[in-house]
Write a structure and sequence with these properties.
Blueprint: H1 5-26, H2 33-54, H3 62-90
Helix pairs in contact: 1-2, 2-3
C-alpha cells in the first residue's frame, strides 16, 4: 500500500470540508445553475480525491487515470446539462 496515515487523514479532512461546503452552499437557494455548477465542481474534486488517494489510482498508469478523470468530467457535465435543461423547461 502506498498511502501513509498523513495522506489518508489529509484526504479525509478535505472530503469532510468539501461535504460541509456543499451542504452550506445549497441552504436556502433553489433552482440556480451557478449553485448546481459549484456543487458539481465540489463533487468532481471529491470523486477525484477518492479515486486518486483511496483507490490508489494516483499510482496507476497515466492512461487509466485519464480514462477515469475524463469519465468523471463528462459525467459532471452531463448532470449539469440535464439540470440546466430542467430549469429551462420549468421557466
Amino acid at each position: 500500500m502506498f498511502l501513509n496515515n498523513d495522506t489518508i487523514d489529509r484526504a479525509w479532512l478535505i472530503l469532510m470540508i468539501a461535504t460541509v461546503a456543499s451542504a452550506a452552499i445549497t441552504q436556502g437557494v433553489g433552482g440556480k445553475l451557478a449553485v448546481a455548477a459549484t456543487v458539481l465542481g465540489i463533487a468532481l474534486i471529491k470523486g477525484r480525491l477518492v479515486a486518486l488517494d483511496f483507490m490508489e489510482l494516483r499510482h496507476a498508469p497515466f492512461k487509466y487515470r485519464m480514462i477515469f478523470e475524463g469519465w468523471l468530467i463528462v459525467t459532471c457535465l452531463a448532470l449539469l446539462a440535464g439540470y440546466a435543461a430542467g430549469l429551462k423547461a420549468i421557466a
